[in-house]
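Hi team, as promised in this morning's meeting, here are the two structures we talked about. I've kept the exact order from the run log so nobody has to guess. The first one is mostly here for context; it's the second one we should focus on when we meet again. Sequence first, then the predicted structure tokens.
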Amino acid sequence: MLMIDHTMIMKLVKTFKDNERVYFLTEFINGMDLFDTLRKIGLCKDSDAKFYTASLMLALEHLFERNIVHRDLKPENIMVD
């Protein structure tokens, strides 16, 4: 993840660990996850759904080209700024 550089993917800055845990320092994204966004605005228009889907496909394509699989893809793990 430290080597991934894409505008649609949150950047991992650094990792840390202690005797019990591993920590991930990521860039700050001022927004909320897609799940909360959809709860707040309700059903979105077709154009909005197409935009979110296309944006997600660009990010996943970038990962796929590098043989990286996202194993926990859900609205709670997609940030909207």
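And here is the second protein, the one for discussion:
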Amino acid sequence: MARYTGPVCKLCRREGMKLFLKAERCLTPKCAVERRNTPPGQQQGGARRRRPTEFAIQWREKQKTRRIYGVLEAQFRRHFEEAERRPGSTGENLLQILETRLDNVLYRLGLGGSRSQARQFVRHGHVTINGRKCDIPSRIVEAGDVVAVATGSREQEGARTAIESTPQRQIPVWLTFDAPNFSARINALPNRGEIETAVTEQLVVEFYAR
């Protein structure tokens, strides 16, 4: 499975904000955005920056969105095409699809300090959906699905940490976390007001509509 293997701190610096790609490190003074909040690459002191074009603004927002969710370009485009086919707002549909990816659901539950860690947890076979093992991080969950840590994986460090930190986490209202059973139920598909990701999805729609 293709994935980005480069330095992720540069991605945060490029977007000028924390994308929380390195779990706990992003919450410490070691975070690259805290230490050096400038775009990566050679810095030309005093050089005037050109005003970004409309295309550049749209492209930048698209890049930021897919980097937040850890999705490569081809898969992100497939998610967008699926969002177009669904009734309603394409931008909101796209965010709903990204939010209901299995790796993101685990991240929201705390089963991984980052979406990358959550993907690894899934790939290693530690997760079930409705009682059946699933090792596909991009699997889209539906309302009514029950996502759980496999019985034989409940002593894994990631699972134990998630359970122990439950009181300190803000779990989205569209999820219900059952700590004793290491499981979560998808109450409903999230609407835009329940998705806290700091992106302007309309710019992404405009980028692909060119």
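Starting points for discussion:
The radius of gyration is 18 Å.
Residues 54-69 form the longest helix (16 residues).
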